[in-house]
Amino acid sequence: xxxxxxxxxxxxxxxxxxxxxxxxxxxxxxxxxxxxxxxxxxxxxxxxxxxxxxxxxxxxxxxxxxxxxxxxxxxxxxxxxxxxxxxxxxxxxxxxxxxxxxxxxxxxxxxxxxxxxxxxxxxxxxxxxxxxxxxxxxxxxxxxxxxxxxxxxxxxxxxxxxxxxxxxxxxxxxxxxxx
Length: 179
Known about the structure:
- The protein starts with a helix and ends with a helix.
- The protein contains nine helices and no strands.
- It folds into two domains: 1-89, Rna Polymerase Sigma Factor, Chain: A, CATH 1.10.1740; 94-179, Arc Repressor Mutant, subunit A (Orthogonal Bundle).
- Helix content is 78%, strand content 0%.
């Protein structure tokens, strides 16, 4: 995290190369996060770019505490929520390009795709607050404490949400498997 502290310090002093390095360091992770919440890559890219625009707009007042990525996730989360409200669309919509690729895939890839669809279907059925905790913890490999910080809730509540999400996912996947 010392590298981030130095990058933030350089960015605050107008170093454009540091800004470029910062964006390159975190762009893929923020894009991946936004893609979980958007139906297409273009929208996810727009939200990712807006995340960095807002980060840099608030850079003068930003106090680095060793968690730049968590701060970016928080900005991206808020943007995704706002986008979802405006568009009235929901999380985890399938990308058309991925559907076309899977039509041409072999049997093993089709089985993996079916498993992914079962999982995505089960995730869609989770309440928003449970799904968000699962995505941050498992898909973005954040600790429970980091997840709590991004969601702005206590650690015990994150643990409860994870436990409840696992129960609901297990029940849903068992039900889909028996159909």
